[in-house]
């Protein structure tokens, strides 16, 4: 069975069984069955004229050059009661092709698929199991939820999704979210063959007045088979705040270390930071700028095969315009500057890379 046929079959089965949900509704008036959709098309132009169809391999979203394409097309359905919750999301697009390339065919089109159970009646404590969005970082695969059109280098090289189990608690005043996670690995649905080492994570998020957010997330695990196990320890921190009603800012800093070899006491280190600012002119228009830096001289996460590894600054500026309440047009100019000549200017190695991207996103 072709993968696209499998996706359509799964979702049609989910939708056509809504009669079961309607029957349950007679027993629990607090339940809610909901459907959502999101489609984001894009065109990206390589100003370096490198002649390649794909962008550099450290970019996973909007990664096709000089062609109209779909970054992500997504259909989601969820069913919630006061004590249970489920979510199923199926997707297509270049985002799925790249980020889930190592997953088995029948899993490559799953965006989310999890079920949750509330553990205590008087406390907001849940256990969820399945496939869900990553607890790391302030950017996601859904473009309309991100201030910049394209994703930052850090987001592209940390998990967008994860699978396993998550225990979460939200305080009665809704200000604190605390999560503990048992995971199948670093952006893995199916565990890597030969890897039996569980991965762990945590998240603590504080949300205050005026959308003030402080977040701390971690990951501990191995990306290798147990015979080659190299433990990775990673921490993500970001804060979001508004200087005025119209001007917002996000500051992030991530750092990780990984063993050089199995049972080694020596580690390779990498880190990154970014500053994003957004100014909203009106309900219809806004601009956002980003400055970022990624340091990985030992090539733990990004391979360049050059003497200094990946040491790269990034800059971007985007303009957004909401054509309708559920439709947004975006255009962005972006550039990179690397210590080593890891890019191409036509056919010659160069330190810089420039490109333009536009997108049209519709949610329903």
Distance between the termini: 29 Å
Which strands sit side by side, in order, in the main sheet?
Answer: 1-2-3-4-5-6-7-8-9-10-11-12-13-14-15-18
SSE topology string:
HHEEEHEEHEEEEEEEEEEEEE
The poorly predicted ranges are: 4-29
Number of strands: 18
- Cα shape: globular
Summarize the amount of helix as a percent range: under 10%
Q: Helix- and strand-based class?
A: mainly beta
Q: Provide a count of the helices.
A: 4
Taking all Cα atoms into account, the compactness measure Rg is 21 Å
**How confident is the prediction overall: mean pLDDT?**
92
The major beta sheet can be summarized as: 16 strands, antiparallel, barrel
Strand content: over 45%
Give your account of this protein's structure:
The protein is mainly beta. It is 9% helix and 52% strand. The chain contains 4 helices and 18 strands. The protein is globular.
Keywords:
16-stranded antiparallel barrel; 18 strands; about 375 residues; two-stranded antiparallel ribbon; about 10% helix; globular; single chain; mainly beta
Secondary-structure topology with pairs:
Blueprint: H1 3-16, H2 18-25, E1 32-46, E2 68-80, E3 84-92, H3 94-99, E4 110-118, E5 124-133, H4 153-156, E6 161-170, E7 176-183, E8 199-207, E9 213-222, E10 231-242, E11 247-259, E12 267-280, E13 285-296, E14 310-324, E15 327-338, E16 343-345, E17 348-350, E18 352-363
Antiparallel strand pairs: 1-2, 1-18, 2-3, 3-4, 4-5, 5-6, 6-7, 7-8, 8-9, 9-10, 10-11, 11-12, 12-13, 13-14, 14-15, 15-18, 16-17
């Amino acid at each position: 069975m072709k993968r696209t046929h499998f996706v359509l079959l799964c979702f049609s089965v989910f939708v056509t069984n809504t009669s079961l949900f309607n029957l349950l509704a007679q027993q629990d008036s607090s339940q809610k069955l909901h459907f959502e959709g999101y489609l984001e098309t894009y065109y990206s132009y390589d100003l370096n004229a490198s002649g390649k169809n794909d962008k550099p391999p450290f970019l996973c979203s909007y990664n096709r050059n000089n062609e109209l394409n779909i970054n992500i097309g997504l259909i989601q359905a969820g069913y919630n009661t006061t004590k249970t919750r489920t979510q199923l999301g199926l997707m297509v697009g270049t985002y799925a092709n790249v980020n889930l390339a190592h997953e088995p065919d029948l899993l490559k089109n799953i965006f989310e698929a999890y079920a949750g159970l509330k553990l205590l009646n008087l406390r907001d404590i849940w256990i969820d199991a399945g496939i869900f969005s990553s607890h790391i970082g302030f950017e996601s695969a859904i473009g309309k939820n991100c201030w910049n059109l394209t994703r930052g280098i850090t987001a592209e090289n940390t998990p967008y999704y994860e699978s396993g189990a998550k225990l979460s608690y939200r305080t009665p005043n809704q200000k604190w979210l605390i999560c503990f996670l048992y995971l199948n690995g670093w952006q893995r649905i199916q565990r890597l063959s030969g890897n039996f080492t569980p991965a762990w994570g945590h998240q603590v998020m504080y949300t205050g007045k005026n959308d003030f957010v402080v977040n701390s997330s971690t990951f501990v695990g191995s990306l290798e088979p147990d015979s080659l196990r190299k433990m990775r320890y990673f921490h993500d921190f970001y804060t979001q705040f508004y200087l005025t009603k119209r001007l917002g800012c996000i500051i992030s800093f991530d750092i990780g270390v990984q063993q050089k070899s199995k049972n080694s006491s020596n580690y390779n280190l990498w880190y990154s930071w970014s500053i994003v600012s957004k100014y909203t002119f009106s309900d219809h228009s806004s601009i956002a700028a980003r400055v970022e830096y990624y340091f990985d001289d030992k090539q733990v996460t990004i391979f360049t095969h050059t003497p200094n590894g990946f040491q790269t600054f990034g800059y971007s500026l985007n303009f957004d315009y909401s054509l309708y309440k559920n439709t947004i047009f975006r255009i962005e100019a972006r550039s990179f500057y690397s210590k080593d000549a890891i890019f191409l200017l036509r056919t010659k190695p160069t330190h810089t890379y420039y490109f333009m991207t536009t997108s049209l996103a519709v949610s329903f």
